[in-house]
Amino acid sequence: MILEGDWRDIVKSACKHELIGHPDYSWMVPDLTYLLDPGFGLDRNTETDLAKAFHGLGMINLHMVSSGQELFNRAFAQLSHDPVQQQDIISKTPYPQHFSNFSFYDVVPPFLYHYLVYDSFIALGLAACDTPGLFTGPKLFAQLLQTSFDGLSGPISFNSRTGTRNAISTQYQISNLRLSDARSTPTE
After folding, report:
1. Residue 177 three-state SS
2. How far apart are CA 39 and CA 66, in angstroms?
3. Model pTM score
4. Nearest to residue 2, comparing CAs of 33, 23, 25?
5. Residue ranges covered by each domain of the chain
6. Mean pLDDT of each 10-residue bin along the chain, 188 residues long
């Protein structure tokens, strides 16, 4: 899986070995939606190998439509830049000493997995609040299967047979990245 931080080196190496950017191979990559952003560009002088590799790349992404993402993104950005808020969170953990070497890093805007993790915690929290009294794991799981809400990654509900997220609540988008000289300048 190509991740946001290391994709250039991976793609350059794959192109060098003719595994990508070659008509006999097709690549599908997940969650690199920023490559589809109109502001994304490559340097014409130093990244022609990347342009060759990207042209025709297939991309599959979880398509999320949620009004709450903007609020989450702002709160996430605030937390990543506010040491007082960070210390407040750490002080409320049972073992704050475990965070003595911990540092919050700046990942703004958040990406897909931040939304999914947030939704997972909310789902468990809602299920726990709706499970009466002291409960066991099976009781919590039974309540989780009944839980539904509008999450950051879309509507959340669970399949009562498998316990997984209902497929009806997830949408995927498939894109084909096509680079164009018409959108290029002599330097970009």
Report:
1. strand
2. 23
3. 0.62
4. 33
5. 7-61+172-183, 69-170
6. 62 79 69 69 78 74 73 83 87 86 66 83 95 93 94 88 84 72 57
